[in-house]
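Retro notes (design track)

What went well: tokenization of the new backbones is finally stable.
What didn't: we kept losing track of which sequence belonged to which structure.
Fix going forward: every design gets posted as structure first, then sequence, in one message. First example under the new rule, 134 residues:
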């Protein structure tokens, strides 16, 4: 019985905390330039998803836009950018290792494939490293 009550209280408390998180204060009247740029990018992607009748993507983008309007800050964008840079750097490192392994085997098709993937990973890293709009 005690375990059941404790479980119920834990669920009730976590639900209350989650509900409190979703009722954050309304957005500021003028978002930062970085948040406005992110919002414009999401809105552009929404337009494209609607044009292609991609309902699944549209749903995700609408959620992203709502989250942007609710809680976008320069600090959150900077943290997201840093996570993207870290992930892209790891991918470049992995692709470089894959290319080195292909070169060691000497298979020209495999080398070309790995080089193409490395080039794409480097482009993604360069994109992630672009500074946020100020």
């Amino acid at each position: 019985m005690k375990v059941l009550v404790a479980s119920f209280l834990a669920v009730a408390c976590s639900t209350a905390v989650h509900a409190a998180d979703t009722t954050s204060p309304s957005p500021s009247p003028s978002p930062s330039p970085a948040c406005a740029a992110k919002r414009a990018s999401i809105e552009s992607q929404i337009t494209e998803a609607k044009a292609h009748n991609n309902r699944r993507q549209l749903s995700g983008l609408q959620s992203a836009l709502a989250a942007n309007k609710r809680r976008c800050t320069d600090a959150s964008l900077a943290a997201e950018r840093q996570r993207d840079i870290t992930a892209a750097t790891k991918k470049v490192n992995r692709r470089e290792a894959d290319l080195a392994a292909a070169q060691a085997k000497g298979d020209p098709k495999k080398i070309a494939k790995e080089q193409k993937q490395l080039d794409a990973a480097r482009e993604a890293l360069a994109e992630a490293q672009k500074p946020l709009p100020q």
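Added context from the reviewer: The radius of gyration is 22 Å.
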